[in-house]
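## tool: complex_structure
## caller: assistant
## args:
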Amino acid sequence: MNKKLFYLVSALMIVSLALASCAPAATEAPATQAPVATDQVEVFSWWTGGGEAAGLEAMIQVFASTDPNIEFVNAAVAGGAGTNARAVLATRLQAGDPPDSWQGHAGQELIGTYVAAGQIEPLNDLYESEGWLDVMPETLIPLISQDGNIYSVPVNIHRANVLWYNPGLLEANGVEVPTTMDEWFAAMDTLQAAGVQPLALGEQWTKLHLLETVLLGTLGPEAYNGLWDGTTDWGSAEVKTALENYAKVLTYANSDSASLTWQDASQLVVNGEAAFNVMGDWAAGYFIELGKTANTDYGWAATPGSGGVFQFLSDSFVLAVGAPHRDAALAWLKVAGSKEGQEAFNPVKGSICARTDCDQSLFGEYLQSAMADWSSNTVVGSLTHGVVANDSWKTEIDTSLGLFLTNSDVDAFQTALVAACASSGPCK
Amino acid sequence: MKSLRFSKNWLYIPLVGMAIFYLIPMYVMLITGFKAFDEIDLKTMWDLPRGIAFDNYVEAFSKLSPSLWNSFAMVIPATLISSALGSLNGFILAKWKFRGSDVIFPFILFGMFIPYQSILIPLVQFMNAAGITGLPGLAMAHIIYGIPITTLTFRNYYASLPQELLEAAKMDGASMLGIYRYILLPISLPSFVVVLIWQFTSAWNDFLFAVVLTGNTDWPITVALNNMAGSQIIAWNVQMAGSLLAALPTLLVYIFLGRYFLRGLLAGSLKG
Amino acid sequence: MSKDKDRVLNIILVSPSILAVLIFVYGFIAWSVRVSLSRWKGLTPDYTWNRFNNYIELFQDLRFAVDVRNTLIFTGVFVIGSLLLGFLLAVMLDQGLRGEGFFRSLFLFPMAISYIVTGVVWRWLMNPAMGSRMSGFNLLFANLGLDSLVNAWHTTPQWGMAAIALAAIWQMSGYTMALYLAGLRAIPQELKEAARIDGASEVQIYRHIMIPLLSPVTLSALIILGHMSLKVFDLIVAIAGKQLALDVPAIYMWQATFDGQFYGRGAAIGILLLLSVAVLIVPYIRYTLRTETEQ
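## result:
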């Protein structure tokens, strides 16, 4: 028996060595049998599931119709906020092997990381030739540029400062949708007294998301923007008020927030188990997938204090320096910024076009109201989703927040935020 | 005497108790895999699904099966080669002491503790520079990083074997490789079983190396599984169905190898 | 003469492993050390000499202090729990019961399941909500009348890591069981029979014969479990997300390097992890080698 086993194992080893050397050929064979492609473009993203993947697929279809000779290599790797994709990207960039184009959050996440390292090309010529300067919002362009160079093509816009609420719960308790911080506190007091969970929150990053909306709601758009260019002092009294507001808001949250994902927390609102939830507008897509009805099961408003302000984030694509297939990459970017491409992608994904000329009728109820706001509101950027702060700064803020969540010390929190701005931001 | 020993059958009580502990999470995975997306709710996590629809499994299978071949092609060589090398190393370092062998063992062992995140960048740089990319590169990484632990396991196993075993064979004029092949290998079975289980599992389930060393044409099933989750709105029903499917090959390996947990392999070799 | 021939053969056979480890372990560690002593922050490599500042900053870092504490709690609970549970299961399965194969495969199966799904299921099971929103284990306990077992699991302040160790024990104790089972099966039956004839009870046999004979297995298991608990990262993030209260050095290293671009600091954390492990295995190696030469 042992001898047979020995021969079996030896045979297995020989077979497996053969497998290992043949397998790559086996998986490459189909590619060469595909329709004659003269070129290819490798695009990195983290859109692998659900509406995101479907939206990307729709945009790829548009690309296939405009550029049938270019094969689209979809190198998407999943991971919340692209944490895995960005790690893979970093290793490839360090090894000098960039993809042709990749997805990144428009703003400092791209500029502070990739422009600073000279890894992406400016796209001013593309913007000129495609006429994008006329259709992209004016307030957006400076946020995705540095020294007059525009560095990415935004595909979609999401809104961060959305207050989701359960209309039934509010009505049953005689509570109006709050528009200021104080109204919000009063509303949550009423709800809490009636035994209703006032606010649903999830794990740490959702609390960072909440923090940026409270900062915006307390400071207003000018002072909020000042935080990120060094004109607002992080150690000032007004920031302290904002942080104290934030600490107070947290007291209304569910006790198990640390163990919930953003989905679980938002679901509490549509289930009638919580009254309010602060989350970006991708929650609308989630509610639709759950089969919930707008204005019956869920309602929305700007987070308290931020009426008339659109706190945005945007997924965008860039052009790699040293892209192996530069022309193909440019062709892809043209589709990403085109009306057809964005109209194919956004309704499916659950976001609105970055362009202002997309056809409204393609979009659902919430998204139509978002489009109206996008063209009329003041635009500021999100922190959690990479617009206003680069990776290092955001990580330091996140760490300070984490410590605050364990000890509730507002003064220590403020000191840490001041230090973070000095260490990774424009403060001195 | 025998009547004083308590009946073995009482052991079924704690065994079944432990089995329940292991089964509870699997139960949740199983029922969630049969639920529709809108049924997934913390409130109803214990509830049975509305209906047994295999949609999730079909969807998961169609998304995972392209990568299945990649996983096999990479895991089988990686497992077998690293186990064989570990056995050889363990034998030499345990039974054939030479000057320096006591230094070589810790030298190799230390490789077990390297945190993989911190060496991703040099690993990719090296593999790209050496031109060893894709599945062969991934298999090689698993072999190399598997050598420390396989060497550890085998060395300890062989070290506990009595020296008389080898002395007798040496006196009979057997060469080192002969002793390895005819005496040590046959009784290495239990050790091979645990090493193969470990290596197969760690190579099959590895995500980190797989995602940086392979691309979308040749990545193994773990990357496809991770991608199925999606990044923003995650469909746990399909994800759990997919996970259970992806775990089946490993389970089959455990069942197959488990038959080799034989008793008394040493019996007889001492007297011979 | 044949001894020399053997020596040459030995060195040849072991040298591929030595070479591989030299490059892929020590070479890369050297790179990592270099980065940890540099100012590298951002995507562009920057090897400017930064003395030991990265390390000094870590020792003053509140987050790292939390990490160290969490690792100690996690390691303690995970290693001891897995060893005990694995040993007990192996002893039970060694008795030649019917259905041994089924139980063995069942206990091993958790190791085969992906960390994402294991993490999410344990996240649901350990949900700490009380009152009308109770779910997970708490709901089960409440329904069974075991109210005293209802607790906050991993959101327990200070000690939440112990709950996460429970999930890790679930996943890994099957392997410890396999190690002990292989070890038990390698012990000749004659030893047990002889002891029984001498009148020893089962418990005495295990205490004075089996457990000592299994000490190499225990040491192997200790090393394997110990190194896993220092490296664990995916499972914790899958259960708890990235939050400071349940942070460990491995998560901090990832977040610092890939989310925050602090390459110098990330490398320093990695080196500290390695050093802490070295502290464990150096005594192990010396002990092993000493006891073997005594034999």
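## assistant note: Chain A is about 55% helix and 10% strand. Chain A touches chain C through 37 residues (CB under 8 Å). Handing back to user.
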